[in-house]
Amino acid sequence: MRKTAPIPTAIPLTIGIIAVSFSSIFVKWSAAPASIQGMYRLLFTALLMLPFIRPHLAELKSLSLKKASMLFTSGFFLALHFLLWMGSLKLTTVSSSTIILALEPVFIVIGAFFIYKERTSSFAMFGMGVAIIGAVLIGWGDIGVSRTNLIGDLLSVFGTLAVSVHMLIGQKMVTQVSSYVYSFVVFLSATIVFAAYNLIGGISFTAYAGKDWGMFLLLAIVPTVFGHLLFNWLLQYVSATTISMSILGEPVGASLLAFLLLNEQMTWFQILGGLLAIFGLIMFLNAGRLKWKPGKGGSTEPLKSVS
């Protein structure tokens, strides 16, 4: 049985949706490479978590090699996600990139089927198909814009695949370690991966303007602390399904912010594709948890959730 939240859950959910919607805006406002933005975003987040780590020190010290390896792997794919997705924002529009990123639940359910043998309903699969068609239309619309935009769309697709692997690992690991320890170790691991990438690539760690450093800090505080960490905290009080629905709010919020702050426009192909993708995802996320099979005596019982 879930705990009762100290405040109405709609409040932190709304805060989280607004917070993650700003992520793409801050990325666009910084001229620093995506690998540097990602590294400092996660490093600063880990540093902000550090003052509250004392109650979790014993758990950190007792981590087995196997658990630590899985957490590092999760961090590796988180870093890969940020590298590809934040890189895509340098090449395509906020609307295209974030709507494609919203296909994350589709990739997760496919991965969960092969890894955890979890099934979903035919109606949910239909919704998945609609969402994929919408994503294809977004890419098709960007073909008419430029080849660069299309490459950005592809980077967003691969970035979504990477974060899906990260989430599938996390689905297992959060049952073995606390959400705070999971987030802290994964963020530090991703920071190390980024640092190695930047070092090998000869990318400067410090040659950035004051505005860029401000964006690094904002990326850590707004979409990470008030977004991702807040969603992790909410898992104590609401289902993963409820939180995953918030992913549909990001492309809407991010597109609106991009229109107001970056003066980005969308083609009709992109608008139609975005609406189809969001509609398909709504069908998928709702139907995916309403799977039933005949029980004894002709009654019904729920199948295992895909969350």
Automatic annotation (TrEMBL):
Q: What membrane topology is annotated for this entry? A: Multi-pass membrane protein
Q: Which UniProt keywords apply?
A: Membrane, Transmembrane, Transmembrane helix
Q: Does the keyword Lipid biosynthesis apply?
A: no
Q: What sequence ranges are listed for the domain EamA?
A: 16-139, 151-284
Localization, per the record, is:
Endomembrane system
Q: Which SUPFAM superfamilies match?
A: Multidrug resistance efflux transporter EmrE
Please indicate if the UniProt record lists Membrane as a keyword.
yes
The record lists the membrane-crossing segments as 7-27, 39-57, 69-88, 94-116, 123-143, 149-169, 181-207, 213-235, 242-262, 268-287
Q: One cellular component GO annotation, for this chain's record?
A: membrane
Family per record:
Belongs to the EamA transporter family.
Kindly give the PANTHER family that the UniProt entry links to this protein.
ACYL-MALONYL CONDENSING ENZYME-RELATED (PTHR22911), EAMA DOMAIN-CONTAINING PROTEIN (PTHR22911:SF76)
Name recorded for this polypeptide: EamA family transporter
**Species per Swiss-Prot/TrEMBL record:** Paenibacillus dendrobii
